[in-house]
């Protein structure tokens, strides 16, 4: 099912919801559609363009947001789906300092790795093997990462996410240098 970007009344990105939830917000008059996906949703009496971006009509106060949650999907997005050791396609998660040696499960210690590198590294430190990482792990920052970390992307969302660091985030995901 397609997903829809939800913006606050101030155009600040709030999150991503399923198309059904976005349609309910629009039909109940709680949100307006800013971008259409090009598809039509049919009922018994009418056809409604399916939204891709909606904006709430009333401002929603958002409590303090901590760091971006560490999920497998967000981790692979941060590392561009590539192994930080060899640059191959990443299929697993690796702890730089192994958990068996006191390493934490945190953004600073978790990286995407290919199965081969993860198996060869096992529970050793990178320095013991003489390996180098392509980049140092760090927590992603910016509101755009909350949206991009969900794994749902739509090119129509970019103009609304650009002020919140989407260019840098998407460039990092796609393995390019930011424009």
Topology (SSEs and partners):
Elements: E1 3-7, E2 13-18, H1 19-27, E3 31-42, E4 47-56, H2 72-78, E5 92-95, E6 110-113, H3 115-121, H4 126-129, H5 143-148, H6 158-161, H7 166-174
Parallel strand pairs: 1-4
Antiparallel strand pairs: 1-2, 3-4, 5-6
Structural features:
179 residues; alpha+beta; DNA Binding (I), subunit A; 2 domains; four-stranded mixed sheet; elongated; HNH endonuclease; endonuclease; HNH_nuc
Class by SSE composition: alpha+beta
What's the Cα radius of gyration? 20 Å
Largest sheet: spatial strand order: 2-1-4-3
**Poorly predicted regions:** none
Number of folding domains? Answer: 2
Helix content: 25-40%
Give the helices and strands as they follow along the chain: EEHEEHEEHHHHH
**Proportion in β-strands:** 15-25%
Keywords: Endonuclease, Hydrolase, Nuclease
InterPro entries: HNH (IPR002711), HNH_nuc (IPR003615), NA-targeting_endonuclease (IPR052892)
Domain HNH nuclease: 70-119
GO molecular function, one term: endonuclease activity
């Amino acid at each position: 099912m397609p997903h829809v970007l939800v913006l606050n009344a101030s155009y600040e990105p709030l999150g991503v919801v399923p198309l059904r939830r976005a349609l309910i917000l629009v039909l109940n008059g709680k949100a307006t559609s800013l971008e259409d996906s090009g598809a039509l949703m049919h009922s018994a009496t009418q056809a409604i363009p399916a939204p891709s971006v909606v904006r709430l009509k009333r401002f929603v106060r958002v409590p303090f947001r901590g760091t971006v949650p560490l999920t497998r999907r967000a981790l692979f997005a941060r590392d561009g789906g590539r192994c930080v050791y060899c640059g191959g396609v990443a299929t697993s998660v690796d702890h730089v300092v192994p958990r068996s040696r006191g390493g934490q499960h945190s953004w600073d210690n978790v990286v995407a790795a290919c199965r081969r590198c993860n198996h060869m590294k096992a529970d050793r430190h990178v320095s013991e093997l003489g390996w180098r990482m392509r980049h140092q792990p760090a927590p992603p920052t910016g509101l755009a990462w909350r949206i991009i970390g969900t794994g749902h992307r739509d090119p129509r969302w970019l103009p609304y996410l650009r002020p919140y660091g989407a260019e840098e985030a998407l460039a990092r995901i796609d393995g390019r240098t930011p424009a």
